[in-house]
Amino acid sequence: MLALAQFAVAVAIDPLVSLGALLAGAALAFLTVPLASRSSRRGTQLTRRNEALHALVSDFLAGLRLVKSHNAEGRHLGDFTAAARATRQSELASRATLAAARAVMDLGAACTLAALAYAAIIFSGLALPELLVLVLVFARLIPSLSRLQQFAQQLAQQLPAYAHATGMIRRLRRGAEPIPKESRFPLRLRDALNVSGLSFAYPSSPETPVLTDVNLCVPTGRFVAVMGPSGVGKSTFADLLFGLLEPCRGEIAIDGAPLTPANARRWRDSAAYVPQEPYLFHESIRANMLRANPKASGAELERALSLADARRFVDALPRGLDTVVGDRGARLSSGERQRIAIAQALLRNPALLLLDEPTANLDAASERRIVATLASLCPRVTVVTMTHRPEPAKHADNIVLLRSGRVAATGRWSELEAALEGPLDAKGDQE
After folding, report:
1. What does pTM read for this prediction?
2. CB 35 within 8 A of CB 99
3. Residue 383 · residue 353 · CB < 8 Å
């Protein structure tokens, strides 16, 4: 409003000179349009290089043990240096574009002001008082125009990063599970978990299904082992049963109620999942376990640890349950992390206990104790385990043999060996 008022004063003093000033300002703005486009491209490049730099740092820290075991620190340092140098070059190029635009505006503004003063004296014959007022008005207007142009340049540079962030937020919101507004109650398993015509393919490769037309009935209180070699789709099947993924076709039903994104949280309130690669937070064992059940008592913690064959090694730690496990549980072995994860799951008192390769990182003695614990939970708890090892499968009430993403056979261990006319190896294949 102040700029408009000042321009109105200039028009009142000399309309032609004011029109010339307006046209000169438009010409300067037009001259900086290519620089604004360049700022946008520089901003896009800088966003991508910052993203690549952060990903490189994250990957290096996650794989630090492997990097050191290969003595490859120098290579990763070189990659980081190159990425940092590229990011720095993009930042400098962006700053140079902003400086160039400012220089164009400053030089153009000085030339325009001089030309307007000359035109006002030579062609309009303005008296000195009017000329001074006119020059003062334009001296106030031109810096405002310059600041406006600088803001536009900065906006053009920063918009790609903003668009990247808002695009990610939109994708996260689209993928978020609906949270019921009313108080929810657990979706308990009292009769059977039924899988009918289940098929799934990841969006990145829809033409390559991971699971095809899987049918399965898991009665409550049973111990079921889904067996097959690596890559057959066991982990994907576990994620589907737990409601972490949606099937492309088919249905998963809990006591006849279809499992959908709307009731997936209710289902997980009454189930527990032990993933193939357990994750522990950088806090004490007690704090990690209480994440599964914040209301658990000390006696319940001890009982869950005992059932998971973790009590002895936890008691031997310097601070017992209050021992901090490190980032992602780095201060514990793979087997110890797995036993803590099983104890977490048991602490939830689930109706369904779903485990993905629960004994993969355990020695034979610990594996036998864990499998005996899982079997003893039935019929109070329904247990479904994904495995390629024979020990859990031999103790299961029913084995589901997966091959190429399909159910090849079902039955007990001895029944499958008889049906396939030969012993099963450790991967669930016929020897």
Report:
1. 0.66
2. no
3. yes
pLDDT tens figures, 172-189: 888 777 776 655 677 788
Asked if 161 and 223 sit in the same domain, the reply is no
pLDDT in tens, 196-233: 999 999 888 888 888 989 898 988 889 999 988 888 88
Q: Which of 134, 149, 175 is the last residue of a domain?
A: 175
| 426 belongs to a structural domain | no
Residue 205 lies in a domain: yes
The CATH number of residue 351's host domain is 3.40.50.300
| Segment 326-356, tens digit of pLDDT | 887 788 888 888 888 888 888 888 888 898 8
C-beta of residue 228 within 8 angstroms of C-beta of residue 356:
no
Q: How many whole angstroms separate alpha carbon 84 and alpha carbon 32?
A: 30
User: Looking at residue 12, what is its pLDDT?
Assistant: 79
Sheet holding 406-411, edge to edge: 271-274, 352-356, 382-387, 223-227, 398-403, 406-411
Same domain assignment for residues 262 and 329: yes
Would residue 186 count as lying in a domain? no
259 part of a folded domain: yes
Question: Three-state DSSP class for 196?
Answer: strand
Half-sphere exposure of 313 (CA within 13 A, CB side): 18
Find the CATH number of the domain harbouring 94: 1.20.1560.10
Question: Is 60 exceeded by the pLDDT of residue 366?
Answer: yes
φ, ψ for residue 218 (rounded to 5)?
-115, 100
If DSSP codes are grouped into helix, strand and coil, which group holds residue 274?
Answer: strand
Is the domain of 360 the same as that of 293?
A: yes
Whole-Å CA distances, 228 to 5, 261, 390, 414? 80, 28, 10, 16
Is residue 248 a contact partner of residue 202, using CB atoms and an 8 Å limit? no
Indicate if 220 and 168 belong to the same structural domain.
Answer: no
- Number of domains into which the chain is organized: 2
pLDDT tens profile 88-133? 998 898 888 888 888 877 787 778 777 777 777 777 777 777 778 7
